[in-house]
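The instructor's notes for this session suggest beginning with a concrete chain rather than abstract definitions. Hand out the sequence below and ask the class to guess, before any prediction is shown, which regions might be ordered.
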Amino acid sequence: FEDRALISGTAVNMTGAAEAGMGIAVGDLENDGDADLFVTHLRGETNTLYLNDGGVFEDVTATTGLAAPSVPLTGFGTGFVDFDNDGLLDVYVGNGRVGKGLPAATPFAEPNQVFRGIGGARFEPVSPPGGTAGDLIDTTRAVAFADYDGDGDLDAVVVNNGEPARLLRNRVGAGQNWISFEILDRDGVEALGARVAVGGAGGTQWRTVNRAGSYLASSSGRVHFGLGDATEAAQVTVYWPGGGETDYGPLAGRKAWTLRRGEAVAMAR
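After discussion, reveal the predicted structure:
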């Protein structure tokens, strides 16, 4: 490996300061085909969003709505997830102190956060904090995401330090359409690193087959796309690791598909 953080613009924030670096999310917020980075940090620092322009990153946190809400909290697990299936990525942040706060039964506990994507790499906080029906204040570390109940929207598992884990079932995504894909290589093995582009009237969305990220967590390898009002993905293209691409589509929405390299036909699960 070669350390290219300083050259790429991700070693420090926009003021030139190094930050703690706790959790990381990778996703294409601009739908331009390259991966942007979101990094969580200790309290007193803003979490940082780096937009990718052809391999050169810029800290745009100050203009995104993600800066001020993160300063009093310590972020750990995180992820880009389209919770409401509107075609825009949202952000989940799991928080928990590493130094004690006010005397309490759980002195390291802090509220988690959900930020709804509103376009243009900008976000607004969801209330109540954490997006749950009632306030849940834990000492969160890992967060992982999957559609565990198969209803077409992504749920979250939140792992807490010294406390029970929580399974959070998504109740907001059912009102919009969606499509998801299991991407397999020729041997039927999950094609980690494959990139998937889904095109339609609203433009093209990009996802990468990737289980890693967040903080000490592994999420589902299926790639999930919110379609909003669209009932199908007009065009689906898989860019395979090592080169080559395969076109599919149109494919019906509200279905989980399997795409295998070397097979021109998509299989609905």
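Then share the key points. Helices lie at 5-8. The mean pLDDT is 95.
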